[in-house]
Specification:
single chain, 277 residues, mainly alpha, 0% strand
């Protein structure tokens, strides 16, 4: 039941990451993050009426934990996309981001079936293959380190979001977005070099990234409540396919044979996970 929610979540994450990465190439990462968080917060307001639930102290506090992990992951990730090849940074972060929640899910007693495990294996192999064969080496070492760090942040984000109270609706995301926007916004305003309105193109890229990221987060949260955390996190971690394809057609990054193979395996894994779900 979680796969129909997790697949569009992966698509939204991929587009959000790509637009955010483009914005981070033109303006400081912290500025892009603040724009995205504010846009995401505004997007969540009407969504609260679609998933009604009363706010609780536990949900709001859980949102702060979600925010800390997610913000760290996003800032490392956007910086990685800005300085390194997107076709390398995105899949690396996904490998770690998928592995951590999957391990937590299994430890907590989740037992995916054989077909699901086959799909999980294909998905992880696909993500690894997508990191190989890139012809862009500028910033690769820094991108690898930032991608791995971002993956840890994303994995902790997924685990913390899954641990939110079942009847909390979207309130963990609301409190997390608001806290991040306030903290990082204060930092930006306190530094003269970061003040000022970004260029219109950067502003719209940041807004699009924040809105799509919020949609993806909401779909992920609903998916984990409809199914297993482990399977959901792996399906969502197929988002690098979207980033690699967009980087190819928009930025003209060349897809290697290994990357094309990884894309095909990722799509096959999605079909198997859908059948298993």
């Amino acid at each position: 039941m979680s796969v129909p929610l997790a697949l569009p979540s992966a698509l939204a994450y991929g587009i959000a990451d790509f637009t955010g990465g483009l914005a981070a190439r033109r303006t400081p990462v912290i500025v892009v993050t603040v724009i995205a968080q504010l846009a995401g917060f505004v997007t969540l307001i009407p969504a609260l009426f679609l998933v009604p639930a009363p706010p609780t102290v536990a949900a709001l506090l859980c949102g702060l934990l979600v925010s800390a992990a997610g913000t760290a992951g996003v800032m490392l990730y956007l910086r990685g996309l800005a300085v390194g090849p997107m076709g390398l940074v995105a899949p690396l972060s996904a490998v770690v981001g998928a592995g951590l929640p999957l391990a937590v899910g299994v430890v907590n007693g989740e037992r995916p079936g054989q077909l699901a495990w086959l799909a999980v294996g294909l998905a992880l192999v696909a993500i690894v293959l997508a990191t190989m064969g890139t012809d862009r080496v500028t910033g690769a070492r820094t991108g690898i380190l930032l991608g791995l760090g971002a993956g840890v942040g994303f994995g902790l984000f997924f685990v913390a979001l899954d641990a939110s109270p079942a009847g909390s609706g979207l309130w963990p995301l609301v409190s997390g977005r608001l806290a991040t926007a306030v903290v990082l916004g204060t930092v930006v305003l306190s530094r003269p070099g970061l003040r000022g309105v970004p260029a219109r193109g950067v502003l719209w890229l940041g807004v699009a990234s924040g809105m799509l990221d919020t949609v993806a987060n909401a779909l992920f949260l609903l998916a984990t409540r409809a199914g297993d955390l482990g399977l959901t996190s792996v399906v969502v971690s197929l988002y690098p396919v979207v980033v690699v394809v967009l980087a190819r057609f928009v930025l003209h990054e060349r897809l290697s044979g290994l990357q094309l193979t990884g894309t095909g395996l990722a799509l096959g894994a999605s079909v198997l996970l859908a059948a298993a779900g």
